[in-house]
Amino acid sequence: MKTLRTAATLSLLALLAACARQAPSAVQADAPGLVFGIWHGFIFPIAWALSLFMPDVAVYAVPNNGGWYDFGYFLGIWFFGVGAWRGKKVVYRTRVVRDRGTVIDHR
Fold it and tell me: Are 81 and 42 in contact (CB under 8 A)?
């Protein structure tokens, strides 16, 4: 039941997000496009930190040229920016074996 409710909520939110669009009159010929979207996505963590203290700094360019800017922003964040800082993940596993009352610890 909870899974069904979560799926319905996410579907409704996706449907509402699909209705959002940018007015064609807001797009200018020199509006930021794909390349600026990649750059803004890459510098997102720095821009976000600066935006907390400086009102003139924003993390997203408005107006922009729409879908291509958004795609570049996604690429910038995920592949070149924060998402690329995945480093090594080390997993340590401890196994304790109980043998007739004695504990043998294999580390």
Answer: yes
Residue 35 has pLDDT above 80, yes or no: yes
Strand 95-99 and strand 102-106: pairing?
antiparallel
Two structure tokens written together for 76: 């910038």
Among candidate residues 98, 106, 30, 101, the one with its CA nearest the CA of residue 69: 30
Phi and psi, residue 103, nearest 5°: -110, 125
Helix axes 34-42, 67-75, angle to 10 degrees: 30
Q: What is the DSSP letter of 56?
A: T
In terms of Cβ atoms closer than 10 Å to its own Cβ (0-12, 13-18, 19+), residue 72 is buried
59-83 residue pLDDT tens: 888 888 878 888 888 888 888 766 6
Asked if 35 and 80 count as a contact pair (C-beta separation under 8 A), the reply is: no
The ranges assigned to domains in the chain are 26-106
